[in-house]
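Subject: design request, 226 residues
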């Protein structure tokens, strides 16, 4: 099985496991998604959704975020990890949207990555989910799964993982593959205690096969009759 065939098998298996995989960050427009993804760094989507439930009621457009003192915004998102730096980036980002884009969220990758707090991953998520432009965002789940299934090498950078996925996955499947890899990593192939014993992709996972090998130390010791 060559690399393309192996990837096809992985994609088909993930499709069976998670046919309805989707972006789990609650949002109603590109601007809200940008704010939500920015806050999701080193934080769970579940916690972000709890915070944005009230945040998106209070702040509906960039002007609302810059109209309050930074300390107030910090308090509004203080349950989010790194809330101080994220609050600062949100206000800086909103100021740029107002001054440069008439309050609208830019729709190109190049423009998005220039915004404070928006890296390549965040831009890819916004492009694919808000503007329907095919993209593969490599978060911690996508990186872990890609390396465990030998799609990428253990020492590959996040960008190298992204490039390898883009090469092996058909472009029209990039966005859906991103979501399915996340679901697989979040709910099945977890960082701790992955479900190797019921994994349909175990044969492709060196780490999983190693985990499933019975420990030699647990084998019963034969006693010699005296």
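Subject: RE: design request

Done. Sequence follows.
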């Amino acid at each position: 099985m060559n690399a393309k065939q192996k990837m096809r098998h992985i994609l088909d298996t993930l499709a069976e496991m998670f046919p309805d995989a989707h972006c789990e960050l609650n949002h109603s427009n590109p601007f809200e998604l940008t704010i939500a993804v920015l806050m999701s760094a080193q934080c769970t989507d579940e916690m972000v959704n709890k915070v944005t439930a009230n945040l998106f009621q209070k702040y509906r457009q960039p002007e609302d975020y810059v109209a309050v003192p930074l300390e107030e915004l910090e308090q509004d998102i203080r349950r989010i990890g790194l809330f101080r730096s994220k609050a600062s980036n949100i206000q800086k980002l909103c100021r740029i949207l107002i001054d440069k884009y008439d309050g609208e969220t830019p729709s190109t990758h190049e423009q998005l990555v220039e915004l404070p707090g928006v890296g390549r991953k965040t831009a890819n998520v916004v492009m694919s989910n808000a503007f329907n432009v095919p993209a593969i965002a490599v978060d911690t789940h996508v990186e872990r799964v890609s390396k465990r299934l030998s799609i990428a090498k253990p020492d590959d950078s996040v960008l190298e993982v992204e490039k390898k996925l883009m090469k092996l996955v058909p472009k029209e499947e990039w966005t859906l593959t991103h979501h399915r890899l996340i679901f697989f990593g979040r709910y099945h192939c977890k960082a701790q205690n992955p479900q190797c014993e019921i994994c349909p992709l175990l044969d492709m996972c060196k780490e999983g096969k190693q985990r499933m090998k019975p420990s030699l130390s647990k084998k019963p010791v034969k006693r010699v009759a005296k």
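Residues 107 and 131 are 7 Å apart (CA to CA).
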